[in-house]
Amino acid sequence: MINNMISVFQRYTGSSQDPYSDAVDATQKELQCCGIYDYRDWLATPWFNHSGQGSVPRSCCNSTYHTCNGTLELPGLLYPKVCEALLFVLHLIIWSALAVVLVEVGTTRGHWGV
After folding, report:
1. Domain-embedded: residue 111
2. 17 within some domain
3. What CATH number does residue 76 fall under?
4. Distance in angstroms (rounded) separating the CA atoms of residues 112 and 104
5. Which of 18, 26, 78, 112 is 20 to 30 A from 7 (CA-CA)?
């Protein structure tokens, strides 16, 4: 699951037209976090390396700091907490889906007399 999240960050382009980028930006803004664990997650992404700006997406900026532009010169302006809530929700979805599959398999076997 973490690998899937990392994959989404690896696909980030910064374009609002890109569904991966839009999802990452919306998630970071909504959950007020930056990266999966912290802002340093962005240092290993193609977007960070190709942007040449030495910054993280603006969606990492703490909304109380209007001067934040994502630069790593002042990481204190970025959201400090991790996206733990996102990890919790994803775990919940995975376990719920597994439970549904198990119930469906059990129900199907009951109908077929197995």
Report:
1. no
2. yes
3. 1.10.1450
4. 12
5. 78
Structural domain harbouring 69: 2-83
Is there a domain that residue 109 lies in? no
One-character DSSP codes across 8-76: HHHT--S-TTSHHHHHHHHHHHHHT--SSSSGGGGGGSHHHHHH-S-B--GGGB-TT-TT--SBTT-GG
In three-state secondary structure terms, 80 is coil
Interval 2-23: pLDDT, tens: 555 557 788 889 888 888 888 8
Q: Say how far apart CA 1 and CA 59 lie, in whole Å.
A: 22
What is the rounded distance in angstroms from the CA atom of residue 62 to the CA atom of residue 78? 5
Name the pTM for this structure. Answer: 0.66
